[in-house]
Amino acid sequence: MTKKVLCALIAVVMIAAVFCTAGCSSDKVVLNVYNWGEYIANGDDGCMDVIAEFEKRTGIEVNYTEFASNEEMYAKISSGAADYDVIIPSDYMIEKMIAEDMLEKINFDNVPNFEYIDPQYRNLGYDPTNEYTVPYTWGTVGIFYNKTMVDEADVANQSWDLLWNEKYAGEILMFNNQRDAFGIALAYLGYSLNSTNPAEWQEAFELLKEQRPLVQAYVMDQIYDKMASGEAAIGPYYAGDARILMEENEDIGFYVPNEGTNFFVDAMCIVKGTQHKAEAEAFINFMTDPEISCENIEYICYSTPNSATLEMLDPEIAGNPNYYPPQEILDNSEIYTDLPKDIYELMNDLWVEIKTE
Predict the structure, then answer these.
(1) CB of 118 within 8 A of CB of 305?
(2) Which has the closest alpha carbon to 91: 334, 343, 268, 337?
(3) pLDDT > 70? residue 170
(4) What's the pLDDT tens digit per position in 205-217?
(5) Are 19 and 70 within 8 A, CB to CB?
(6) Interval 126-133 mean pLDDT
């Protein structure tokens, strides 16, 4: 019996056991999943509704909700205001939550599809022994712009400076989360995205404060409506959202600035103290199944860490440099890491000042 066949049988047995537990009990299991917005195949445009498919196969009901930023997710969970089982945060936030004992170690015997995760996405700095996470997607950050509203000469140098171009005052969008906003400013200044030098953060603050009068709005998923409608001309966002933005408005262009950018990994984790750990592991294993993962990735278009999924993808997606950028862009990118407490406090204080000015 081959390793893949054995793993498949293990997965079937494990899911069947969970199904029996959920279906034979008088109390139906409800799994609370917390993920980013616009970040899962939901049945639109003829794609698979992966949550509905999981529920059908296992009998486990999923309560699926969305967050707009890592900080929003962390605040909600750390406050005890909500009870979640599976969450999908980014690298630096995972590192922070592991350090604060907020995540459960995963029993990988219950996640045999982990074998499909490419080794280059395992044992990364945020989870060096790979005990707490299964990578979901990865990607980079760049600038979206409307070709009919932005002069070609202003994007020729492929720089972050477009976000500070006074010509487009009132037509510029900016991230509504402090880590990405400060990350852009630090990269533009030539500093590490993980700087621990307060003076460099102060410089980044001054740069963001200088930008403030030019900004129409600080947004997250609102970028879709504003860019699609032509209400805004420029906005930084995650490369994986190129599909949505460019389908809604064919005049949208995208580039990764040459000063460098953030390379991120979002991963599936289990919240500490969950009462449904086996079901959470069944969900993670399901999402890592190559066929399910392919359906999901072809809809959301973020880059996949799943080697089997990558082989199955539509060539138009797998060969798209927005989603799978050339190595020189990756070499000029930096992954966020957890910051010292004093730097976090400084960043948060400076961000409040920018937003309330």
Answers:
(1) yes
(2) 337
(3) yes
(4) 999 999 999 999 9
(5) no
(6) 98
